[in-house]
C-alpha cells in the first residue's frame, strides 16, 4: 500500500489519531470539564461580555462595513445567497454576454428594495442601491418577465456596455474593498498604518485557492516569496510579534498535498515550506501555516513538525500554525505541539481559530459513510472546545505565543479572564469584520491587548472562495457577527455561556444532522466506508490485504448450492500479467441445462417465500459484504485492476443495493399484492463493476421472487464466485441462485434461447443488447422483459461562469477514475470558447500530476485497463485521433506498468461530435469548443447521437442549467460536480435511447419490472399459435416533419406545469364523456384516473434522500412519440386506457387502427387544451410502418397474443434504441398491471443532481437551527 514505511507515532500523536472521529457525546463532556471556570470567573466573563456588546451596539463603526452587510443579507435571506453567487461568479466571467445572462438570471428573483434604508451603514445602502439599480433597470413589465432574454437583448443593443454590469461591478468593488486589504502588500501596508498606531498588527494572506497543477503551485510559491520580501521590508526588524506576518496554505504550494501522496509531500512540499520559513526568519517576521480540511491534518503535522524542528530555524520564534477548535482532535494537537516546542527548545506562534470548512466536512463524511464527523455538529460545542483549547494554551506560554482569533464577545471576555494579568498574547480578527468589538480591546484606556488583523491581499478574481467562506461562516444565523447587529436580540441571549448550554443538553449532537450511518433515516442503514486518510483504519487494512496478496481464489459453476468440477484455466492480474489470481472452471452446455432445470424448481420455492423473509436474506447479505470488505477490495484490485478507493466504493454500492431492494421488496410485495416473480431470470453482468452491478441485478431479481441464473463477465468471475458464497450464506436457497461463469457467446446464447427463461437483466454494449432482444422476440407469447443498461457518449457542458478549478477536478475524476472504464464516465467535454484556452491549459497541468501504475499502491490515480483486447482498441483510437485531432496531453506511465495492460489517460481536442463513431471505453477525454450562442446546436448534436446515459453541467446560471437538463434526453444529469458514482436510492441510474431500456437501477421502480401480475386461471393460452395476419414489413409513410412536429408538441406538453396537466387531462376525460360516442364514453374514466395517479411522481419530481449540500430529484417523463397499435377487435375501453397512460406520462401519441372512432380523438385532445399535433390518428398499416422504422420512442398494443408476437419480432428488427413493447392481450402481461405500474411502463426517468455547495459553501447547513 505504501512505497515506504510510515513513521511511528508517539503516544500524544496516537491520541490525536484516536480522536479523529471520536464519539461526540464523550468528546464534548470531556471538553466541558476542561473549559469550566469557577462561578466567580463565569460571572465576571458575563459582565465583561455584556459591556462589550452594549458598546458595539452604541458605536457607530459597528453599523458599517461587512458586519452590517451580513446582518442585512443574512444567509436565510434569498438575497444573501444570490449576492454571494453573483459576486463570486462575476469576478471571473470573461465574456459580456454570459455576464449579462448571469446577472439577469439571479437578480430577477430578488427583492432588493425591501433592504433599502434598513441599515444606517453607507456601505450596506451603497451595495443595496447598486443591486437595486441593477435589478430595477431590468424590471419592466409582465411581458418582459415572461421573456426576460428578449428584454435584455434590447437593452444591451440600446446601451453599449449595459448599465447593469456597470452598476453591479460598482457594488462588487465596494464589497471587495471592504474584504480585501489591497491588491499588493505595499498597498495593504499603506492602508494599515493608521490602524497600527491604534494597537493593531497585521497578518497578510495571499488570496488564492489550492493548486491543481505544478504551474499553479510554482506561481503561488513565487507570490509568497515576493510577499515575504515585501513584508520584511515594511517590518524593518521589529521582530515577529510587533511586525506584520504572513499566512501560508500548504495546498497552494503543492498540487498533490494529500495523504495518498505521503512520500511526495514529505520529499517535495516540506523543502518548499522550509525555504519560505528561512526567508521569513531572515526578516524575523511571523510565519503561520493555515489550517485546511480535516483529512489533511495528520499529514500537515508531519510537514509542519519536520520544518519546525529543523536546526536552521534556531534563534527565531516567528514560526507557527493555525489550530481549528471545531475538530475533535484540537486539544490533543495542542498537547503534541507543546511537547514538540519543548523538545526543540523554541516557542511556536499558535493561532486558535474556530474552523472554516464545517459544511464541507459534514458533506464529505456523509457521502463516504464514515463512522462519524471529524468536527462537532453544534456551534456551541465548537465554542466549548475553543475555550478548553484557549485555557490549555494560556497554561503553556512556555511553549506558545498565543493568538486567539474570534469575533465572539463571550469568547473574548473568557480569554481576558483566563489570562489574568499576564497580557503577553494577542487577539486576531478578520479584516473588515469585528471592528467595533476590538476598538475596545486595543484601546490603551480599555483592555490594552493587541489585536492582529488577518487581511487578504490580492486581486478581485482571487477573492471568490475566501469571500464565500467568510460570508458563510458569519452570515450563518448562529454567527455572532451576524447577531451582534440585531437590536431585537437581547444581549443576554447573545452572550449565553456555551459551557452551560452544552452541559444542560441531554444530547450533544445536532438533532438535524444525522450521523453518516443514519443518512437515510430509520428504514435503511448507510453502507460503511473506509477513510483512506485515517492511519488507524489504513494500517489494519494494509495488514489484512498483505494476507490476501498471496491468496488465490477459485470460481466454478454453482448449481443448486453445489460446485461443479472441471478443468480450470488461470485468472491473472491485469496490472501484472505474470501474477496468477485464481482458477476458473467454465460452465458447459450440460451445466446450463442443469442450472435452468434447478432454477425452475427454485422459483416455485422462492416465489412463495414471504417478501419479508426475502428482504431479511438480502439485508443479511449486505452485512456479510461489509464484514468481508477487505477481501473484496483485494480481489477487485487483483482481478479487475481497481484502486483502493474504487474497491471501497464497489463494496458500498453492492451493500446499498441489498438494503435498498430489501425495502422495495417489502413495500411492493405486501400481503394481497397483485404482483409476483416472473420465473427464471438471467442476469448478465459486466467486468467494470464485478460486484456492484452483478449484485444489483441479482438482488433485484431475487427481491421480486425470481430464481436467478447469473452469468458474470469472463474477466471477473472470481469476484462473482466469492459473492455467490455469501449469497448462499445469507440464506438464499441454492436452487434460487445459480452461477454460470464462462464465455458469453456460448453460455449467454444458450440461456437467452431457452424457452424456460422468463426475463433478462443485462449491462454491457448496445450491440449485445440488440442480439439478446432479437433472441427474446422470437419466443411466441407475452413479451419477456429485457432490462438493459448499455453504453453512452457522455458529455459535460461548461460555460464561462463555471469555476475552472472545479471543472478540472471534476473532469479528471469523471474521465480518468477507474481508468475511464465506467458506463457513466466523461467522454466529451464541451467548453465555451471564451474560457477554453485557460481551461485546457489547466486540464493538461492537472493530467501531468496523475500517476498511472499498479493499484496496490495508495498513491496511484489510474490503474490498468481490463485486458489486452481493451488496450489494443484504445491504442488504435489514440492513433486515429493523433492523425485527425489535436493531442492535448497523454500521461506518462510508471516503469511498473510494463508487465500489465496499461493505457495512459489521453486528452484530444476534436472539431465536432461526428468525429467519434462509438463510445471509447477507457481513459480518453475529447474536448470540443463551442460559442455561447450555439448552445442549442450542441444540445441537438448530443441528442442526435441517440445515447443518453449521463451528462455533466458546469454553470452558475440557473436558466442555462434548466435549458440543458430539460432538453437533453439523458438518464442522469449532474450539475456543478463530477458525473460518476451514482448512489443507490439517491441518484437512481440508467439511460434513455441507445443507453438503456429503463427503469433505473437503484430507483423506486426497478424491482417492479422484475415482477408480473399474479397468474389467474382460465386466461388466454400463453403459447398461442400464429395466424395468417403476421405483418408484412411495411415501410414508414409518416413524413419526418410530422414526427418533428409531434416531438415538439411532446416537449411543450412535458413543459406544462404538472398540476395544470392534471387539470387538462380531467377536462379531456369530461370531453370524451360529453362526446356521446359509446366507445369514448366507456374509456373516459381511465383518462381521469391516470391524471390522478400521475400526481405521484409525474406532477413534480420526487426528492430523493441524500447528503447535505446536494439536491437529488427523480423525474418521471414521457419518452417521446408513443405508438398505440389497436387490433381490429380491441375493446375501446382498453385502448383509451393506453392513451390515458401515455398522455399522463408526458408522451405524444400515434393511435394506429382502422376503427372510425379513433379519428375523433385528436380534435377532442386539442379542444381540451393539450398541444396541437400531440395526438395523431392513422390506419393499421401506417402504424406497422412506424413500428418498423418510424421515429417513435415506444410501442403499446391492444391485440391478441399471436399479433403481439408478430409485433415483437417486427420491433426487434429496428436499429438504434431497444423499444420494449407494452402488450395488452388479456393474458398475464402489462395490460393486467395495476394502474401505477402500468403508467410507469410509458415513462422514462431522469435524475438531476445539483451540488448546492458549488459556490464554496452550504447555506442550508449554515442556516439550520438546532432545536
Main sheet: strand order: 22-23-24-21-20-26-27-37-31-30
Structural class, by secondary structure, is: alpha/beta
Fraction of residues in helix = 40-55%
How far the N terminus sits from the C terminus, by CA atoms, comes to 45 Å
What do these coordinates show?
- With 1267 residues, the chain is of the alpha/beta class.
- Helix content is 47%, strand content 14%.
- It contains 48 helices and 37 strands.
- Strands 22-23-24-21-20-26-27-37-31-30 form a ten-stranded mixed sheet, sandwiched between helices. Strands 1-2-3-4-5-6-7-8 form an eight-stranded parallel barrel, surrounded by six helices.
- Strand 33 (1148-1152), helix 44 (1161-1167) and strand 34 form a beta-alpha-beta unit.
- The longest helix has 25 residues, at 644-668.
- The chain is globular and about 100 Å long.
- The two termini are 45 Å apart.
- Residues 119-161 and 1018-1029 have low confidence and may be disordered.
Key phrases:
48 helices; alpha/beta; 10-stranded mixed β-sheet; single chain; 1267 residues; 8-stranded parallel beta barrel; globular
List the helices and strands and how they pair.
Layout: H1 11-18, H2 24-35, H3 39-58, H4 65-72, H5 78-90, H6 96-107, H7 122-138, H8 142-146, H9 148-158, H10 163-179, H11 185-198, E1 200-206, H12 214-235, E2 245-248, H13 250-253, H14 262-283, E3 287-289, H15 297-308, E4 319-324, H16 330-344, E5 348-353, H17 358-368, H18 379-395, E6 400-405, H19 409-419, E7 426-430, H20 435-442, E8 451-457, H21 460-475, H22 480-483, H23 491-494, H24 498-504, H25 535-549, E9 553-555, E10 558-559, E11 562-563, E12 569-573, E13 576-584, H26 589-608, H27 611-627, H28 629-640, H29 644-668, E14 675-677, E15 680-684, H30 692-703, E16 707-711, H31 717-729, E17 737-739, H32 744-752, E18 757-763, H33 766-778, E19 786-789, E20 795-798, H34 804-816, E21 828-832, H35 833-848, H36 868-884, E22 886-890, E23 906-909, E24 924-930, H37 935-944, E25 947-948, E26 950-954, H38 958-967, E27 972-975, E28 992-993, H39 1006-1009, E29 1011-1013, H40 1040-1055, H41 1058-1074, H42 1078-1093, E30 1102-1103, E31 1110-1118, E32 1121-1126, H43 1132-1144, E33 1148-1152, H44 1161-1167, E34 1175-1178, H45 1180-1189, E35 1194-1198, ...
Parallel strand pairs: 1-2, 1-8, 2-3, 3-4, 4-5, 5-6, 6-7, 7-8, 9-13, 15-16, 15-18, 16-17, 18-19, 20-21, 20-26, 21-24, 23-24, 26-27, 27-37, 32-33, 32-35, 33-34, 35-36
Antiparallel strand pairs: 10-11, 12-13, 14-29, 22-23, 25-28, 30-31, 31-37
Amino acid at each position: 500500500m505504501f512505497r515506504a514505511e510510515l513513521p511511528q507515532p508517539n503516544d500524544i500523536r496516537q491520541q490525536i489519531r484516536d480522536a479523529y472521529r471520536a464519539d461526540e457525546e464523550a468528546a464534548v463532556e470531556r471538553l466541558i470539564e476542561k473549559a469550566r471556570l469557577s462561578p466567580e470567573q463565569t460571572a465576571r466573563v458575563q459582565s465583561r461580555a455584556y459591556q462589550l456588546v452594549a458598546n458595539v451596539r452604541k458605536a457607530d463603526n459597528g453599523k458599517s462595513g461587512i458586519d452590517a452587510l451580513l446582518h442585512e443579507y443574512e444567509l436565510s435571506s434569498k438575497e444573501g445567497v444570490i449576492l454571494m453567487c453573483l459576486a463570486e461568479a462575476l469576478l471571473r466571467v470573461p465574456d459580456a454576454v454570459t455576464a449579462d445572462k448571469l446577472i439577469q438570471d439571479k437578480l430577477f428573483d430578488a427583492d432588493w428594495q425591501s433592504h433599502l434604508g434598513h441599515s444606517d451603514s453607507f456601505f450596506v445602502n451603497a451595495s443595496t442601491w447598486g443591486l437595486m439599480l441593477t435589478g430595477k433597470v431590468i424590471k419592466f413589465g409582465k411581458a418582459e418577465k415572461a421573456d426576460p432574454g428578449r428584454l435584455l437583448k434590447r437593452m444591451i443593443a440600446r446601451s453599449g456596455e449595459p448599465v447593469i454590469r456597470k452598476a453591479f461591478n460598482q457594488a462588487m468593488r465596494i464589497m471587495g474593498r471592504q474584504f480585501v486589504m489591497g491588491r499588493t502588500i505595499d498597498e495593504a501596508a499603506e492602508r494599515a498604518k493608521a490602524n497600527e498606531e491604534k494597537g493593531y498588527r497585521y497578518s497578510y494572506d495571499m488570496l488564492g485557492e489550492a493548486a491543481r497543477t505544478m504551474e499553479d503551485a510554482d506561481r503561488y510559491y513565487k507570490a509568497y516569496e515576493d510577499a515575504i520580501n515585501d513584508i520584511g521590508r515594511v517590518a524593518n526588524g521589529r521582530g515577529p510579534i510587533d511586525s506584520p506576518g504572513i499566512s501560508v496554505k500548504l495546498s497552494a504550494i503543492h498540487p498533490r498535498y494529500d495523504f495518498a501522496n505521503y512520500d511526495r509531500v514529505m520529499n517535495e512540499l516540506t523543502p518548499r515550506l522550509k525555504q519560505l520559513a528561512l526567508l521569513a526568519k531572515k526578516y524575523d517576521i511571523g510565519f503561520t501555516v493555515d489550517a485546511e480540511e480535516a483529512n489533511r491534518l495528520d499529514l500537515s503535522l508531519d510537514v509542519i513538525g519536520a520544518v519546525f524542528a529543523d536546526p536552521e530555524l534556531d534563534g527565531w520564534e516567528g514560526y507557527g500554525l493555525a489550530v481549528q477548535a471545531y475538530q475533535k482532535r484540537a486539544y490533543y494537537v495542542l498537547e503534541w505541539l507543546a511537547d514538540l516546542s519543548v523538545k526543540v527548545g523554541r516557542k511556536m506562534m499558535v493561532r486558535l481559530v474556530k474552523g472554516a470548512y464545517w459544511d464541507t466536512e459534514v458533506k464529505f463524511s456523509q457521502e463516504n459513510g464514515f463512522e462519524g464527523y471529524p468536527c462537532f455538529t453544534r456551534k456551541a460545542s465548537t465554542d466549548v472546545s475553543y475555550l478548553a483549547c484557549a485555557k490549555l494554551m494560556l497554561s503553556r506560554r512556555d511553549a506558545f505565543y498565543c493568538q486567539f482569533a474570534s469575533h465572539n464577545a463571550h469568547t473574548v471576555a473568557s480569554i481576558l479572564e483566563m489570562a489574568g494579568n499576564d497580557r503577553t498574547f494577542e487577539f486576531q480578527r478578520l479584516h473588515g469584520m469585528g471592528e467595533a468589538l476590538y476598538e475596545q480591546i486595543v484601546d490603551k484606556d480599555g483592555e490594552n491587548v493587541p489585536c492582529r488583523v488577518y487581511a487578504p491581499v490580492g486581486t478581485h478574481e482571487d477573492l471568490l472562495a475566501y469571500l464565500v467562506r467568510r460570508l458563510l461562516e458569519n452570515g450563518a444565523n448562529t454567527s455572532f457577527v451576524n447577531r451582534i447587529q440585531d437590536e431585537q436580540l437581547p444581549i443576554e441571549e447573545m452572550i449565553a455561556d456555551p459551557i452551560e448550554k452544552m452541559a444542560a443538553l441531554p444530547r450533544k449532537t445536532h438533532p438535524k444532522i444525522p450521523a453518516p450511518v443514519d443518512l437515510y433515516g430509520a428504514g435503511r442503514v448507510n453502507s460503511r466506508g473506509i477513510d483512506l486518510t485515517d492511519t488507524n483504519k489504513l494500517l489494519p487494512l494494509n495488514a489484512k490485504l498483505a494476507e490476501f496478496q498471496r491468496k488465490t481464489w477459485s470460481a466454478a459453476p454453482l448449481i443448486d448450492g453445489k460446485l461443479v468440477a472441471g478443468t480450470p484455466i488461470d485468472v491473472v492480474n491485469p496490472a501484472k500479467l505474470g501474477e496468477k489470481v485464481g482458477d476458473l472452471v467454465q460452465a458447459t452446455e450440460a451445466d446450463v441445462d442443469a442450472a435452468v432445470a434447478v432454477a425452475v424448481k427454485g422459483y416455485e420455492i422462492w416465489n412463495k417465500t414471504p417478501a419479508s423473509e426475502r428482504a431479511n436474506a438480502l439485508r443479511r447479505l449486505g452485512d456479510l459484504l461489509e464484514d468481508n470488505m477487505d477481501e473484496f477490495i483485494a480481489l477487485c484490485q487483483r482481478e479487475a485492476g481497481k484502486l483502493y478507493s474504487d474497491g471501497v466504493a464497489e463494496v458500498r454500492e453492492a451493500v446499498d443495493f441489498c438494503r435498498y431492494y430489501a425495502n422495495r421488496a417489502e413495500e411492493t410485495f405486501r400481503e394481497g399484492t397483485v404482483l409476483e416473480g416472473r420465473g427464471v431470470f438471467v442476469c448478465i453482468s459486466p467486468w467494470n463493476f464485478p460486484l456492484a452491478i452483478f449484485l444489483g441485478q441479482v438482488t433485484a431479481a431475487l427481491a421480486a421472487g425470481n430464481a436467478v441464473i447469473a452469468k458474470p463477465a469472463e474477466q471477473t468471475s472470481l469476484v462473482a464466485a466469492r459473492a455467490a458464497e455469501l449469497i448462499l450464506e445469507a440464506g438464499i436457497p441454492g436452487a434460487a441462485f445459480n452461477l454460470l461463469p464462462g464465455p458469453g457467446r456460448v453460455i449467454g446464447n444458450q440461456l437467452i434461447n431457452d424457452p424456460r427463461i422468463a426475463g433478462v437483466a443485462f449491462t454491457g454494449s448496445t450491440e449485445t443488447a440488440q442480439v439478446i432482444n432479437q433472441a427474446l422476440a422470437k419466443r411466441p407469447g407475452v413479451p419477456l422483459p429485457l432490462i438493459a443498461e448499455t453504453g453512452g457518449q457522455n458529455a459535460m457542458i461548461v460555460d464561462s461562469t463555471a469555476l475552472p478549478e472545479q471543472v478540472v477536478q471534476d473532469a479528471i475524476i469523471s474521465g480518468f477514475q477507474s481508468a475511464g472504464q465506467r458506463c457513466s464516465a466523461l467522454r466529451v467535454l464541451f467548453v465555451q470558447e471564451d474560457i477554453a484556452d485557460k481551461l485546457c491549459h489547466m486540464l493538461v497541468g492537472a493530467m501531468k500530476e496523475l500517476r498511472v501504475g499498479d493499484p496496490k499502491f495508495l498513491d496511484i490515480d489510474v490503474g490498468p485497463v481490463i485486458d489486452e483486447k481493451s488496450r489494443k482498441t484504445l491504442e488504435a483510437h489514440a492513433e486515429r485521433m493523433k492523425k485527425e485531432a489535436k493531442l492535448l496531453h497523454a500521461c506518462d506511465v510508471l516503469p511498473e506498468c510494463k508487465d500489465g495492460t496499461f493505457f495512459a489517460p489521453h486528452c484530444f481536442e476534436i472539431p465536432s461530435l461526428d468525429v467519434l463513431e462509438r463510445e471509447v471505453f477507457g481513459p480518453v477525454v475529447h474536448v470540443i469548443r463551442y460559442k455561447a450562442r450555439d448552445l442549442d446546436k450542441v444540445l441537438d448534436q448530443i441528442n442526435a447521437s441517440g445515447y443518453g446515459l449521463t451528462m455533466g453541467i458546469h454553470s452558475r446560471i440557473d436558466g442555462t442549467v434548466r435549458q440543458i437538463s430539460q432538453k437533453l434526453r439523458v438518464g442522469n444529469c449532474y450539475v456543478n460536480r463530477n458525473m460518476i458514482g451514482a448512489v443507490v436510492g439517491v441518484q437512481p441510474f440508467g439511460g434513455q435511447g441507445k443507453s438503456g431500456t429503463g427503469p433505473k437501477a437503484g430507483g423506486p421502480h426497478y424491482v417492479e419490472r422484475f415482477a408480473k401480475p399474479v397468474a389467474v386461471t382460465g386466461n388466454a393460452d400463453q403459447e398461442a399459435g400464429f395466424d395468417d395476419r403476421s405483418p408484412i414489413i411495411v415501410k414508414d409513410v409518416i413524413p419526418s416533419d410530422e414526427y418533428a412536429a409531434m416531438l415538439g408538441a411532446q416537449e411543450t406538453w412535458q413543459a406544462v406545469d404538472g398540476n395544470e396537466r392534471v387539470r387538462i387531462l380531467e377536462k379531456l376525460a369530461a370531453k370524451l364523456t360529453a362526446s356521446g360516442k359509446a366507445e369514448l364514453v366507456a374509456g373516459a374514466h381511465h383518462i381521469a384516473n391516470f391524471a390522478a395517479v400521475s400526481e405521484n411522481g409525474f406532477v413534480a419530481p420526487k426528492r430523493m434522500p441524500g447528503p447535505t449540500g446536494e439536491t437529488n430529484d427523480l423525474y418521471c417523463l414521457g419518452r417521446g412519440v408513443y405508438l398505440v397499435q389497436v387490433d381490429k377487435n380491441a375493446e375501446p375501453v382498453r385502448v383509451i386506457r393506453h392513451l390515458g397512460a401515455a398522455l399522463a406520462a408526458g408522451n405524444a401519441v400515434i393511435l394506429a387502427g382502422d376503427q372510425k372512432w379513433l379519428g375523433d380523438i385528436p380534435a377532442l385532445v386539442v379542444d381540451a387544451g393539450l398541444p396541437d399535433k400531440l395526438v395523431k390518428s392513422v390506419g393499421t398499416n401506417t402504424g406497422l410502418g412506424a413500428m418498423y422504422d418510424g421515429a417513435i420512442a415506444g410501442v403499446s398494443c391492444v391485440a391478441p397474443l399471436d399479433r403481439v408476437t408478430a409485433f415483437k419480432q417486427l420491433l426487434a428488427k429496428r436499429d438504434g434504441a431497444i423499444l420494449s413493447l407494452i402488450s395488452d392481450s388479456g393474458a398475464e402481461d402489462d395490460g393486467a398491471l395495476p394502474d401505477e405500474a402500468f403508467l410507469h411502463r410509458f415513462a422514462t426517468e431522469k435524475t438531476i443532481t445539483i451540488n448546492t455547495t458549488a459556490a464554496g459553501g452550504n447555506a442550508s447547513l449554515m442556516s439550520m437551527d438546532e432545536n
